[in-house]
Specification:
- The complex is a heterotetramer of chains A (300), B (313), C (313) and D (541).
- Chain A is mostly helical and 300 residues long.
- The longest helix of chain A is centred in the middle third of the chain and has 37 residues.
- The two termini of chain A are 18 Å apart.
- Chain B is of the alpha/beta class and 313 residues long.
- Chain B has an 8-stranded mixed β-sheet, with helices on both faces. A 4-stranded antiparallel β-sheet of chain B has the order 2-1-4-5.
- In chain B, helix 7 runs parallel beside helix 8 and helix 8 packs parallel to helix 9.
- The two termini of chain B are 35 Å apart.
- Chain C contains 12 helices and no strands.
- Helices cover 30% and strands 23% of the residues of chain D.
- In chain D, strands 1, 2, 9, 10, 11, 12, 13, 14, 17, 18, 19 and 20 form a 12-stranded mixed β-sheet that branches. A 4-stranded antiparallel β-sheet of chain D has the order 5-6-8-7. Chain D has a two-stranded antiparallel ribbon with strand order 3-4.
- In chain D, helix 14 packs parallel to helix 16.
- The chains are: A mainly alpha (300), B alpha/beta (313), C mainly alpha (313), D alpha+beta (541).
- At the A-C interface, helix 1, helix 6, helix 7, helix 10 and helix 11 of A face helix 1, helix 6, helix 7, helix 8 and helix 10 of C.
């Protein structure tokens, strides 16, 4: 990110006509911030994967007499309001948070790509109706929408994923539609059509591979947004039950204890912030690498 | 008398761990009233020279050497003093007029802003500029001022930028690739414009171009650049009709009028310059010496040339 | 003109569709509208309603009609007479409630947006001009964390610091400027960071443009280059982002209003959803979506105003 | 341009941006106008509501949003108990026995006839005298507006005997009629509270404080001293009631000195705030219990042994101490021990995992596969528990109970839902356990609760409990007018359900009163729904 402008200058510069290649991996390694973010992400994912093995306590075992403890040797990050070990809960919480976010991003990526493809590729009335639908979903503030859907479905991991996906897919669909529209104009699509390829084949072989980079950038940045949305919904009291260890739920149920036992908000809050920071850095970096002509704001 | 003297100018751009040598050790002078041309392929560093005179290169460029204008070294002037020279004494006519005009501002404003000072001075200036626009074959200049750049044709934009550059009556006009990207008709128009500037306004000009026709029509003296170096410098007629350097020869032969014989090969990497003559890999006349020893620039027959003279043997 | 009609048509359609969606969504929520409303008004959350009460209530508000009939009668009343129904909980016309609560939200969102734009754009420009210096890095790290922290956490931390530790502003309340400071700051933080980041990128991109170089070559002072040439162009992508930020501001207002006991429409909406006060939910959603679309429309207009290249026929 | 780095330059940029914004017409300056325009919606009957911080003005941080000041539409409790604008005919002592209110005395003439004698020295805030005419009108309004109260009152006719004597005939025998007239929704209003068409405008009552204004935007209710209160001197010149629904915000508001009196800060904060200079925290019990409903129709829960085991597995004292921070207390039966009719021989189940183990093993539930969850015939003992978050004590209590039951080998999956969704599930019977906080003295008499909870067709008998003995005891008690006899029958019912645990009573609900130390003379009324503001409260700085 630091060198993005210099990079751009160089790319545009007449001095280095061929220096810009497709070596994404090499680029990642050239950027210290991305490398750092990647390492941190691996660290988090590793923690999440091995959480049951490394967490020192049962994350749901309460010990009322040991409630609201500050960090100590026994409980490295302290305990929460029911005396549950915070470290264990944050570790297991990583599993919940990351898998919910992954689920939401994958579902909305899939839905959005499909809808955007169909709209952009077929055009006409199909495009018109899907675009209207996208507009409708985009003009509805996400939090409120999720609130209503969760109200209808009840809380729980699966319902949360579903509600957030319904809120998030439209962003992907709009982006994908734009991508398809611009790719459709390219010569190779025309030649594919003249050579008699089927619609599905063209979409699968030509359009999706050319658009996916941009979508992946959005997905990466969105990952962080999903985690923040979960926390917001938890705050409004309809995210996940508090006994499911999840960072957002922990943060919001710990907020009552901000004064007396601040660590039960500090640690989950930091965990959320860090993971969102990591995904922002990765997303920005990927955008610079994969999608150099992207204009700043489109995604937000 | 020389109005502008460039001495040992080198420009480098850092790129990751390497540096790109855009211009190396270039020296020349521009005499009062003459039109000095710099020609060469894209990427030969000729535009960088033009920009470095006014210190318009990106901040990461490393510039060394001297540029004397009226006894001042432009490269070591304070920004506030530099500002008094930019646009007033030395003005730049940018390459790609489409990009050089701010798309969101009206043409009039972009002309007017050259004149600083109070309203009367501005009015006075605008009057002159409108006059100038008429001179430069722009019809209905008043209306033009109320339009936005995208509403003009390429040729009109080109003349407009010329007008902006000339309106303060600078002592030197630096024209950076003025015909780049213009259609043939507009190109022909550009030649007329420059001839007019030269003959009627008697301007001193630095014309940076790869358009040999334009250079031939307008320039008094010409420097040929290759890979950041001047390889030949002489009277325009001499350079273009009886080129000495093999690169200049190639360049002229590549011209459509001369049968479009392209120069084979590519320019060398500017990060790691090859040993010996920079041109030897593409040179028809190259010899062992050429690949070992870098030729120095020498006087020859009233001009300057950077070659081991193998082509003359 | 035709363009605006078309646009207005789209907006009306979107508002209608969102209302319909809300209506049916609210009706599939389990819990029995009549019973829940009674619980929230007359009998207390944990008590159960009598059969008689339910029947009386349902027939008073026609809750037993088929959904589409209920919806169409709502639309009819709303369109023909501007009557969006009467709140089950507050027993007041929805219009009246909106008139009470909407200004607070508009104030909060407006103040946050103004704050976000002023601070975000200024910092973005500053950061761009300081590219890769220490202050740029620090700013960017701060904003990176700014967008990454959960909003309600930030709000609570702000209260702890500014209200309880420093005693500068009250914890909650409504009416004075000092009441607005903290909620507006908390709400705008995310937008400040987004706007700053976009401004920085776009400013850098703009500063690399040729017309900036040409402006420099004209000898314009720095502030003029930035204010006249760079800012207007750099603002174009920023304006788009501002449009999108409105949505997140309106959504974020729900949380912020709850924390600061701000008497706005967001809190009303959340309360009404859980009380199944359907007419109020409908009214709030209608208001929010309309506001959102209007801001987008304004953004579109502003965009055309700033960028002369875009003209709608 | 790259070497300009001074602060001046930054200011320049900011100014530029501002001017740019102004020039672009992107403004939000119409705000001030709109604010002016709507302030006309304030209902004002006295001077402006903006209370300066004069000595005897008290700012009260109320725990719910003030949605309505209409006593006929949900505002009853607030207007009567918290704002002290209106009063009821009947009062109650701390042990929930009744005492005179606006009515001096009452008498049951025959099975269906009651006679109430009103005080003759009471006048409304509008200056008019309170007589039977106004009382009759109020009661009729309430019966019309609130079917729930109407169904409890069972009033047939109201007769004016003389100016201060009222005769009420009920449709059927209703021994709890005076108790219901203690309910704040039945507080007496002046006819001038309504406009010509009978619509409610503002509450005009007889209480120690007079309604001054209600700002519908900020929802701030202001009341002022009633100089002519029949009960004597009133402590405060003015009281400003502000709804602050978030417990955290209430805590910070009183800490920051924005309110002088509030209730129910987060329970965990009570000790910390109590230790602060100038703030006093008092913890009381209120007539409400945390209760775990058990769906008896769900297979293992119909088994008495399983229910008892569950009751033994729950550590009520730990929960009261560590989850409620002693804002509340471990509970035995549905009634507070301080209530005059409560069965005082019962004591809370104490935790006994061994006993729970015995009972479960006897019922056939043993952990055979070693996963920590008992099973029987290959089916694990897994239950779901629903609760809601509107009351801050519930979610953490539910979590604690979940963990404690798990220690006894009972797996519980916790779901925190909206009340609406819970209702739906309960109607469908698709639930096992439901943790809620129930009011136990909406009417200061045991009949109401015991009927609703434990009778076979009781309206709150969601567990589906049915015990003919309980049914007959309650039916018998209804006809008994002698209080002692009545209470005896109800005590027997309490003892039975204590044994059978169709609803597992966890703890009594508490209330933490948080006030500044200059607020003096406050007396807690344990019969109030949340808390009651007494006339004697005053400020002394």
């Amino acid at each position: 990110m630091d060198n993005s402008f210099a990079d751009k200058l160089r790319k545009k510069s007449f001095l280095l006509p061929e220096a810009y290649g497709n070596e994404v991996v090499k680029k990642v390694f050239q950027r210290k911030d991305m490398l750092f973010a990647l390492l941190a992400l691996f660290f988090f994912v590793g923690l999440a994967l091995f959480a049951p093995l490394i967490s020192p306590y049962d994350p749901n075992a309460i010990n009322l007499k040991n409630k609201n403890l500050n960090p100590s040797e026994e409980h490295l990050l302290g305990t929460d309001y029911l005396g549950r070990d915070l470290l264990s809960r944050i570790l297991i919480g990583a599993q919940t948070s990351l898998s919910i976010a992954t689920g939401v991003v994958l579902i909305s990526l899939f839905l959005g790509t499909a809808a955007g493809c169909v709209a952009g590729y077929y055009g006409g009335i199909v495009d018109e109706s899907i675009s209207r639908l996208i507009d409708i979903f985009l003009s509805f503030p996400g939090v409120i929408f999720a609130l209503t859907i969760l109200g209808a479905l009840g809380s729980g991991v699966f319902n949360l994923m579903l509600a957030l996906s319904i809120v998030h897919w439209a962003k992907y669909a709009r982006l994908m539609r734009g991508q398809v529209l611009s790719i459709k104009k390219k010569e190779f699509i025309l030649s594919a059509i003249t050579s008699g390829a089927g619609d599905f084949y063209i979409i699968r072989k030509h359009i999706v591979p050319n658009a996916i980079a941009t979508l992946l950038v959005l997905a990466t940045i969105d990952f962080g947004h999903v985690i923040l949305s979960i926390a917001t919904l938890s705050f409004l009291g309809i995210g996940l039950p508090a006994d499911v260890p999840e960072w957002g739920a922990m943060l919001s149920s710990g907020k009552e204890f901000m004064r007396t036992a601040p660590f039960q908000t500090i640690f989950p809050g930091l965990a959320i912030t860090l993971i969102v920071v990591i995904f922002s850095i990765l997303g920005d970096g990927m955008r610079d690498i994969l999608d150099p002509n992207h204009e700043g704001g489109e995604i937000y | 008398m020389s109005l502008l003297e460039v001495k040992d100018l080198s420009v480098e751009f850092p790129s990751g761990e390497n540096t790109v040598k855009a211009v190396s050790h270039v020296s020349f002078e521009i005499r009062e009233g003459e039109t000095f041309g710099i020609i060469g392929e894209s990427g030969s560093g000729k535009s960088v020279i033009g920009l470095s005179l006014l210190r318009l290169l990106p901040a990461n460029a490393k510039v060394s050497g001297r540029v004397f204008f009226q006894g001042q070294d432009l490269l070591s002037l304070k920004p506030s003093e530099l500002r008094k020279i930019r646009g007033k004494k030395i003005s730049l006519m940018p390459q790609n007029p489409a990009g050089a005009l701010n798309p969101v501002l009206k043409n009039g404003l972009q002309i007017e802003e050259v004149f600083e000072g109070n309203r009367d001075e501005k009015k006075e200036g605008m009057k002159k500029a409108l006059e100038l626009m008429k001179q430069l074959f722009l019809r209905d200049p008043e209306k033009l001022c109320t339009l936005y750049p995208h509403q003009l044709s390429g040729g009109m934009r080109q003349r407009l930028t010329a007008c902006i550059s000339l309106s303060f009556e600078p002592e030197i006009l630096v024209a950076d690739e003025p015909t780049k990207g213009l259609d043939p008709e507009a190109k022909a128009g550009a030649v007329d414009v420059f001839t007019k500037i030269k003959t009627e306004y008697k301007k001193t000009m630095l014309l940076i171009t790869h358009d040999l026709d334009l250079a031939f029509e307008v320039c008094d003296r010409i420097a040929v650049m290759y890979a950041g170096e001047i390889v030949e410098l002489d009277q325009a007629s001499k350079v273009l009709s009886t080129p000495l350097h093999p690169y200049t020869k190639g360049l002229i032969q590549a011209h459509p009028r001369n049968g479009l014989v392209p120069l084979s090969g590519q320019s060398p990497s500017r990060i790691k310059l090859p040993e010996g003559c920079l041109f030897h890999e593409r040179c028809r006349y190259s010899d062992v010496e050429c690949s070992i020893k870098h030729p120095e620039i020498k006087y020859y027959n009233g001009g300057l040339i950077r070659c081991h003279f193998l082509s003359l043997k | 003109m035709k363009y605006f009609l078309k646009k207005a048509g789209f907006m009306a359609f979107t508002v209608f569709a969102v209302c319909a969606l809300t209506f049916f969504l609210m009706n599939v929520i389990p819990g029995g509208t009549a019973e829940l409303i009674l619980k929230h008004t007359l009998i207390g959350l944990e008590e159960s309603a009598t059969e008689e009460q339910l029947i009386q209530f349902s027939s008073r508000y026609n809750l037993d009609d088929p959904l589409y009939l209920q919806f169409f009668s709502w639309v009819k009343e709303a369109v023909l007479r501007g009557d969006m129904g009467t709140s089950y909980v507050y027993k007041k016309p929805v219009i009246y409630l909106l008139a009470l609560r909407l200004p607070a939200t508009v104030q909060l969102a407006g103040a946050s947006m103004a704050l976000a734009i002023v601070v975000g754009v200024s910092l973005g420009i500053y950061s761009a001009l300081q590219e890769n210096r220490i202050s740029d890095h620090i700013l960017r790290i701060i904003t990176l964390f700014g967008v990454s922290m959960p909003g309600f956490w930030v709000a609570l931390i702000l209260i702890l610091i500014f209200s309880l530790k420093l005693k500068l502003v009250p914890v909650s309340g409504y009416g004075n400027l000092e009441n607005m400071l903290l909620p507006a700051a908390a709400l705008s933080l995310h937008s400040i960071a987004s706007i700053m980041r976009v401004t920085r990128t776009s400013m850098l991109e703009t500063l690399g443009q040729e017309y900036i170089r040409f402006a420099k070559a004209k000898g314009l002072p720095v502030w003029k280059i930035i204010s006249r040439h760079a800012l207007k162009n750099a603002m174009l992508p920023v304006i788009t982002v501002i449009g999108f930020q409105t949505g997140s501001l309106l959504g974020g207002a729900v949380v912020i209003e709850k924390i600061f006991a701000w008497p706005g429409i967001g809190g009303l909406l959340v309360d009404s959803i859980s009380a199944r006060d359907l007419p109020v939910v409908q009214g709030c959603v209608l208001a929010i979506v309309t506001m959102y679309l209007l801001v987008h429309f304004l953004v579109d207009m502003l965009y055309t105003h700033l960028d002369p290249r875009i003209r709608y026929g | 341009m790259k070497n300009k780095n001074s602060p001046l330059f930054i200011i320049l940029i900011i100014l530029l941006t501002c001017s740019f914004l102004l020039a672009s017409g992107c403004s939000s300056t119409e705000e001030n106008d709109t604010k002016e325009a709507v302030s006309g919606t304030e209902i004002t009957s006295g001077s402006d509501a903006k209370g300066s911080s004069e000595a005897s003005t008290l700012v009260l941080g109320e725990m719910w949003e003030i949605d309505s000041i209409n006593t006929l539409a949900g505002g009853g409790t607030l207007i009567c108990e918290k704002a002290a604008i209106t009063e009821t005919l009947v009062g109650a002592n701390d042990d929930f026995s009744l005492k005179p209110g606006l009515a001096n005395s009452w008498e049951q003439l025959d099975e269906n006839t009651w006679e109430f004698k009103l005080r003759d020295d009471v006048s409304f805030h509008d200056g008019s005298k309170m007589t039977v005419k106004e009382v009759k009108l109020t009661l009729e309004k309430i019966i019309e507006a609130n079917p729930k109260v109407a169904s409890m009152l069972k009033i047939d006719t109201i007769e004016e005997v003389d100016e201060y004597t009222l005769k009420i005939k009920t449709k059927e025998i209703n021994p709890i009629l005076p108790g219901i007239l203690h309910y704040p929704d039945t507080a007496i209003l002046s006819p001038s509270s309504f406009d010509g068409s009978g619509e409610f405008v503002k509450p005009i009552g007889t209480g120690p404080y007079k309604f001054e204004s209600f700002d519908e935007r900020t929802r701030i209710l202001t009341v002022v001293r009633n100089e002519n209160w029949w009960g004597g001197k009133v402590g405060l010149a003015k009281m400003v009631l502000k709804g602050i629904p978030d417990p955290n915000t209430r805590a910070m508001s009183i800490e920051n000195g924005e309110v002088d009196f509030t209730v129910d800060v987060p329970y965990s904060e009570t000790d910390r705030i109590g230790a602060l200079d100038g703030i006093i925290v008092e913890k009381y019990k209120t007539p409400r219990v945390y209760k775990l409903d058990v769906n008896l129709k769900h297979d293992p829960l119909g088994d008495l042994r399983v229910r008892q085991a569950m009751s033994y597995a729950i550590d009520r004292h730990d929960i009261a101490e560590h989850v409620l921070y002693n804002v509340g207390e471990a509970a035995a039966g549905p009634f507070l021990p301080t209530m005059v009719w409560a069965n005082k021989s019962l004591s809370p189940y104490t935790r006994d995992l061994e006993k729970a183990n015995e009972l479960l093993t006897a019922a056939g539930w043993v952990d055979t596969d070693g996963d920590g969850i008992r099973d029987k015939g290959g089916k694990p003992l897994k239950l779901n528990m629903m609760t809601y978050s509107a009351r801050p004590g519930l979610p953490p209590m539910a979590e604690a109970i979940t963990a404690q039951l798990k220690e006894a080998g009972i797996g519980v999956e916790l779901e925190i839902m909206e009340v609406g969704s819970i209702n739906d599930r309960r109607k469908k019977g698709d639930w096992n356990l439901y943790l809620a906080a129930y009011n136990i003295a909406m009417v200061p008499d045991p009949e109401y609760i015991l009927t609703n909870w434990y009778m076979t067709d009781g309206s709150d008998n969601q567990p589906g409990y049915s015990n003919p003995k309980v049914d007959s005891l309650i039916t018998e008690a209804r006809k008994i007018t002698d209080l002692k006899e009545r209470y005896k029958k109800f005590s027997d019912v309490e003892a039975i359900v204590y044994e059978e645990q169709p609803m597992i009573i966890i703890a009594y609900y508490g209330c933490a009163i948080v006030k500044k130390d200059y607020v003096k003379g406050y007396v807690f009324d344990p019969t109030a729904h949340d808390y009651r503001i007494n006339a004697g409260m005053y400020i002394e700085k």
